[in-house]
Amino acid sequence: MNSTILTTVAATGFTVAFFHAAIPTHWLPFVLVARTRRWSRSKTLLVTLSAGLGHVALTSLLGLGIAWFGFKLDAQLGAAFPWVTGGLMVAIGLFYFWRQLRGRGITHHHLIGGHHRPSEHCGHEREHSHWDEELKDSSLVADRAHDWPAVSGLFLMLTFSPCEGFLPVYLSGVQFGWHGFFVLSAILAIATLLGMLLFTWLTLIGLEKFEIKSFERYEAGLLGTLFTALGALIIWLEH
User: Fold this and answer.
1) Angle at which helices 177-204 and 2-22 cross, to 10°
2) First CA to last CA across the chain, in angstroms?
């Protein structure tokens, strides 16, 4: 039974991490900067991979803190712990639904030196992503003679923006101890890097005709759905 539950939580975690990585904030900036600076596909994918590793590392570090806190909380709450965990994630999901209903669906990372203007970038009349305009004001493309500022800027942008969508998953794996933590960390790394590299590569080869603006606009709703589903799943399994 425990192995079945862990497999279910791991599968849910993979879905959360992969779809979070599929959101354009995790790959579109790399494509736009690469095109502006005329990077090769291999170099663009390498930069994406390095930034993804930083993204995963910080998220795992935060997950370590959550797991440690969860172990302490589980020892105190006992049988009530899964109910508390599930209820918390449902509440987080409802918060993201509220964000979506308030018209704040985009929860993206900002480019270093860029200036985001929601009224200009998030309107329905836009044919492209808000990143097109934000990139123009960014220091990532200001110095065309050296690539290091762009590479480091992209790395810092993603590294210091952890995958908030995956953090509650660590809490759901507390009942499996450190084994669960390491399994979920591996799932996080595989799903995140796979998603980032896949969508970066697809866009580089010209398959970018899908509606990026629609995907961005409903980011909060997507996260709300994943959080709520995971919370309901934990409560259902406990029941």
Assistant:
1) 30
2) 13
pLDDT of residue 85 exceeding 80, the answer is no
Average pLDDT over all residues of the chain: 78
- For 19-81, the DSSP string reads HHHHSGGGTHHHHHHHHHHT--HHHHHHHHHHHHHHHHHHHHHHHHHHHHHHHHHHHHHGGGH
* 16 DSSP 8-state letter: H
Rg (CA), the chain: 19
Query: What are the CA-CA distances from residue 76 to residues 71, 72, 176, 180 (Å)?
Result: 9, 7, 16, 19
Band (pLDDT 50/70/90 cuts) for residue 121 is very low
> What pLDDT is attached to residue 142?
54
Residue-by-residue DSSP string for 181-233: HHHHHHHHHHHHHHHHHHHHHHHHTT---S-HHHHHHTHHHHHHHHHHHHHHH
**Which range has the worst mean pLDDT, 29-33, 64-68, 129-133, 198-202?**
129-133
Determine the distance from the C-alpha atom of residue 1 to the mean position of all C-alpha atoms in its chain, rounded to a whole number.
30
Neighbours of 26 (CB within 10 A): 24
Decide: 18 and 166 in contact? Cβ < 8 Å.
Answer: no
What is the rounded CA–CA span in Å between residue 166 and residue 92?
A: 12
The distance between the two most distant Cα atoms of the chain, rounded to a whole number of Å, is 61
Q: Nearest CA to 176 among 165, 185, 166?
A: 185
- Written as six digits, the tokens of 48 are 């994406």
The alpha carbon of residue 22 and the mean position of all alpha carbons in its chain are separated, in whole angstroms, by 8
